[in-house]
Design brief:
By secondary structure, the chain is an alpha/beta fold. It has a single domain, classed as Phosphoglycerate mutase-like (Rossmann fold). The chain has 7 helices and 6 strands. Helix 4 packs across helix 5 and helix 6 packs across helix 7.
Length: about 200
């Protein structure tokens, strides 16, 4: 089995405003930087091969954590298309019942001119298969959408109902993968908060 440890980037101003961020390249907020400065990667993961999404918020998080990373395009956040920068309230006002209908599509929700969570899961699955070929314990600083895709690969979760496990975002989410690419949840919510060590 090959291990994959995932960390979500620290908060941005758009996270704090509850805006859909997607592939819009928003840096960490001052509060986000401070939060990440209070994190420490557990020692069992420090020798992993580390990657980061191309987006600034993931790159900054990796740098603050002292990780030497390669940039990996496959783990960029979901592209929310025309919905990026908007809040749920904005979209309800703009789309009315259509927004509710699309939300109920779960993994097949597709924003205008964007990609669906199923599209994200497909590109994450291809990346996972490359990691399995190498057999090298791997870590990545990525996004909520990427971690949700991994949970879906591991459990078959269709994203219509709440996630089968509650995730803490000040934490490492650890998955294991067999040589044939089958994904399993190993351990969720391994704390990054330095005081918890």
């Amino acid at each position: 089995m090959t291990s994959l440890a995932l960390i979500r980037h620290g908060p941005t101003v758009w996270n704090e405003q509850k805006r859909l961020q997607g592939q819009t390249d928003i840096p960490l907020s001052p509060g986000g930087r401070k939060r990440v400065e209070g994190w420490k990667v557990p020692t069992e993961f420090t020798d992993f091969k580390w990657y980061a999404s191309p987006l600034t918020r993931a790159q900054q998080t990796a740098e603050l954590l002292g990780l030497s990373v390669e940039t990996e395009p496959a783990i960029i956040e979901m592209h929310w298309g025309d919905w990026e920068g908007q809040t749920g309230k904005d979209l309800k006002e703009q789309y009315g019942d259509e927004f509710i209908r699309r939300q109920k599509m779960g993994i097949d929700l597709r924003p205008d001119n964007g990609e669906s969570p199923r599209d994200v899961r497909s590109r994450v699955e291809e990346w996972v298969s490359r990691i399995c070929e190498s057999g090298e314990p791997t870590g990545a600083v990525a996004h909520q959408g990427i971690i949700r895709a991994m949970v879906s690969l591991a459990t078959g979760w269709n994203m219509i109902n709440p996630a089968p496990e509650k995730m803490d975002w000040d934490a490492v989410q650890l998955f294991s993968m067999s040589s044939d690419g089958k994904v399993e949840i190993d351990q969720l919510n391994i704390s990054l908060i330095a005081d918890d060590k």
